[in-house]
Amino acid sequence: MLIIVQSDLFHDPSQGLQALPLNDGRVSYQSDWLSEPQATALNKALQQSLPWRQDTIKLYGKSVLIPRLQSWHGASHCEYTYSGLRMKPLPIPPALVAIQKRLENELQAPFNCVLANWYRDGQDGMGFHADDEPELGPEPVIASVSLGAERKFSFKHLPTGERTDIQLANGSLLVMAGKTQRFYHHGLSKTRKRIDGRINLTFRYISLDLCK
Ligand SMILES: O=C(O)CCC(=O)C(=O)O
Ligand SMILES: [Mn+2]
What is the separation of C-alpha 75 from the centre of its chain, rounded to a whole number of angstroms? Predict the structure, then answer.
């Protein structure tokens, strides 16, 4: 297993996004995309203002509550399907439009929807999966902003099973692009540590042409 530390990254951390050493994937990371006070304030504001819901999914024929709260926002055609659950989008609130615009400008990629996940404590998480819904296209650019408690994010390389872990800091930005969703699964493991909540915002682009 590979654990990414700052010295593995290709450039100085103050230089913006840095590529992670992942074969077959294109992933980059910036620990301080938002300042800590900005990220902490946004976390608090979103905890209070987004219409959080805890959905139930079917797992091996049984209904189970997913271990996190979610809120789905985007253009009206951006329905989101996850384990058989279909979510209708709500409008993107102004605080998130500001982030969307900054990402579009810096990454030179369009975004029209955002999934907000609120991991209330260490017992909330997300299992290994790929963001490979057909409507995201073959090589989606997914921009993931982390707010609040630092959490371990893991990649599993599908051909070799090799795992790569990275700690996602408060205010960090992780960008997955290229063939990452084809060659890797990613997930956020649970921890027994007593930790505060974390909100993650994953900005995506759903093409109207690719929607069923
Ligand atoms: O919380 C995270 O960092 C990951 C979220 C994620 O993978 C997703 O929303 O698809
Ligand atoms: Mn994902």
Answer: 18
